[in-house]
Structures are given as C-alpha cells and as structure tokens.
Design goal:
There is one protein chain. By secondary structure, this protein is α/β, with parallel strands linked by helices. The protein has 2 domains: 263 residues, Rossmann fold; 77 residues, 2-Layer Sandwich (formyl-coa transferase, domain 3), CATH 3.30.1540. The chain is built from 18 helices and 11 strands. The protein is elongated and about 85 Å long.
Length: 404
C-alpha cells in the first residue's frame, strides 16, 4: 500500500474573512488537504449562509448547508468594528500564509486590512479577494450574488427553451466555481512564493468567471454579430443531444451523440438502420438542421421503454446516456456509496451527512476533518494556542465584546 499522507498542506495556515459560499470553498479545499484554516466570523456582520436551508433538529445557525460547506474549518468570532478586534486580526495574518476575503471592494481598506496593510505585517503574504466585479472598473462597488451575476453576464438568456423568458439557475453555480478558481490561484501564488520568496495579491471577479463559461456565444456576438438564445437541452455542435420522454410518470433519458461512428452504433442499438440511411440525418450538419424531425423519431422509440432499459442498451453500445434522476435517487445510488462520495459524521446537534472530497488521490488522499464548526467554537482555544493570548485576557475580551 502506498503511503497516504493526508496532510499535503500540513503547516500551511489560512485566515479566511469570507462569508457565504465562494471564500469558504477556497478555504475548505486547503483544509481537506491538511491546512489549518480559520474562518473569522462576527455577530455584528453575520454570515447568512449559516441560516441557509434545513437545519438539524434543535440547531440555531447550523444549517446542513453550513455543516457541509464549512467542513474541516475552524471558526472564531471576532468583532472587527472594535480596534482591538482589528489588532487581533492583524496578529492572525502575521501567523498566516494566505488570507481570503470576499467583501465588496473597499471594506477591507476601511478596516485597515487591505493588501497594502497586510504586507506591512507579513511581506510575503498571499491575499485572495473575490468580489462580484473585481477590484477596479466602473462596477467595482456594485453588490452581487451568484444568482444575479448570472443575469448580468447573460447566462440566464441561454437557459430555458427557445424564445422563452430567461430562466435563472436555481443554484448559485458561480460561487463554488469561483471557490475552486480562487484555490487554484492561491496554489499558484504559493508555488511562486516558494520559488521567489514573494507573496502577491489575487483579484477574482466572479462575473468574469461566468463569461468564461460561454466563450462561443460571446465570440460569435463580438465577431459575427450573432445573438445566441436558449436552446433547451440541445447542443450547438452535435445532434441528437436532448432529453427524451420515456415510459412511466415523468420519466426521461438523456442521450448525446458526438461522432458518426456513435450515430451508426445508436441506429444499430435501436434497431433503426433506416435512420442511418435517411438523407435528413446523413451527417452531423444535417442532423443539426433537422433536429426537430430527429427528436420526434427518437421519442417514438424511447416512449415505449423505461429509462433503465434504454441506458443499459445504449451504454452497452458505447453511447453516452443516463436517466434523469431526482436528488433522493442520486443519494441512494450504490455507485456513489462505493466511491464514498458522502459520509456520516457526528455533530453536536445530531449525526449529519457530509459530502466528501470529489477526487481520489493514490498517495495524498484529502479527507473531511470534521463537520462545519459551531459558530465561534474555536475562538478562545485558537487565540490562546496560535497567538499566545492568555485565558484571562480572552475572558476579558469576551466581556468587552471584542470576542464572543
């Protein structure tokens, strides 16, 4: 068995001033790989993510979302509106390798915690700032969350059905995506510091990440003047590519075919060689032009079969396909149980199910260290152990409402 060093980032310390999702994801990635990541929270500026979605019985501010998204992190409560609170924050930075924040541009400057301020404390510090539109530009101070950034960047106009009203994503997809990008950028900065001894500042604009997701429509508009609209479940470059109605109540299957070889195998699998000989479907370009007729023919075939039967048949012929599932069906899938995609962990308010790290490594497997922490549960111990603040002083700071 290979040696499985689960602490690949052991010894790395990150102070995370972020809230909601994006900054928390950045820290979580490092924490699952062994870094010590402390999330700085406040009752004055409460992280509303703690109130998001369903909570465990008897919990307050400990929703299942928080228990998952903040897993492996530590939590301290620190009042940054108090001068002593800012002093403690700066001492945390002095002991840190990376600082993460996702406030609106200008907030960290007003607190005295800008990159310029932090470099005076630790010259080689790496700081990651994730905001809606970035640290400069006409929109720099505009507020934004993942859902409305999808509107502003045009993503919602590509959702839904042709000529329908724009359909928003019902999940803030930009937050986890930017969290991963932020961790990637921080890792690159750490490598740069290892080589040069110099830290740096990382400016992430979540809106730019959204725009990068649909490069083809953007370039087509800029260079050719063409405006793309929603195309439902179809694809710009290949057909068939859709969800097809199956036998059973609200039963559907997804089928996607990319090559001529796959198309011929699909026709063989469905026992419809006539489709391969039909001049309307003779090649990929013609299938795209005649998608409506093609989808009608395929639906006539899928309606007579249940999704499991279709998927088993098509997968046996090397055709990309899968049933449309609801969340409980995904949770009960033995494939994910085999891969240990989630785990049960004890939490003060009861057992909780946590998603695990979505990749496997043969020698340095990351792992979930613990469920998301209770609000400020590590405050006094962390400040005593890391900063050497005596217990009597932390007690006094609690009385002064610098700590909670």
């Amino acid at each position: 068995m290979p040696h499985r060093d689960e602490n690949i980032f052991g010894g790395l310390r990150i102070t995370n001033f972020g809230w909601f999702w994006v900054a928390t994801i950045m820290g979580q990635i490092f924490a699952d790989l062994g870094a010590e990541v402390v999330k700085v929270e406040s009752r004055v500026s409460f992280d509303n993510a703690r109130a998001t979605t369903i909570g465990l019985a008897g919990s307050q501010g400990e929703g299942l979302f928080t228990i998952n998204v903040q897993h492996s992190l530590k939590s301290i409560q620190l009042n940054l509106s108090a001068a002593r609170g800012v002093e403690i924050a700066k001492e945390l930075v002095r002991q840190s390798d990376v600082v993460i924040e996702n406030y609106r541009p200008g907030v960290m400057e007003r607190l005295g915690l800008s990159y310029a301020d932090l470099r005076k404390i630790r010259p080689d510090i790496i700081m990651v700032s994730a905001s809606a539109y970035g640290q400069h530009g006409p929109l720099r101070t505009a507020s934004g969350f993942g859902t409305n950034l999808a509107c502003v960047t045009g993503m919602d106009t590509l959702q839904g059905y042709d000529k329908s009203e724009p359909r928003p994503f019902n999940i803030a997809i930009l937050d986890p995506m930017n969290g991963v990008l932020g961790a990637y950028a921080a890792l690159a900065a750490l490598r740069h510091r290892e080589r040069t001894g110099r830290g740096q500042y990382i400016d992430i604009a979540q809106a730019e990440a959204a725009i990068n997701m649909f490069g083809a429509p953007l370039l087509d508009a800029v260079f050719n003047g063409r405006i793309h609209h929603a195309i439902a479940n179809r694809d710009l470059a290949q057909a068939p590519h859709n969800l097809y109605r199956c036998k059973g109540e609200d039963a559907w299957v997804g089928i996607a075919i990319a090559t001529e070889d796959e198309w011929r195998r699909f026709c063989d699998a469905t026992e419809h060689p006539s489709w391969a000989d039909d001049p309307r479907f003779a090649d990929g370009y013609l299938r795209l032009r005649n998608q409506d007729e093609l989808d009608v023919s395929i639906t006539e075939w899928t309606r007579e079969r249940d999704p499991a039967e279709i998927v088993e048949l098509l997968q046996a012929h090397g055709i990309a396909s899968g049933p449309v599932r609801n969340i409980p069906q995904v949770a009960g899938d033995p494939h994910y149980a085999d891969r240990q995609s989630w785990m049960e962990a004890h939490h003060p308010f009861g057992n909780a199910v946590l998603y695990t790290v979505p990749w496997k490594m043969s020698a340095t497997q990351p792992r979930v260290r613990r469920p998301g922490p209770l609000f400020g549960m590590d405050t006094q111990r962390y400040l005593q152990d890391v900063l050497g603040i005596p217990e009597a002083e932390t007690d006094r700071l609690v009385e002064q409402k610098v700590l909670y």
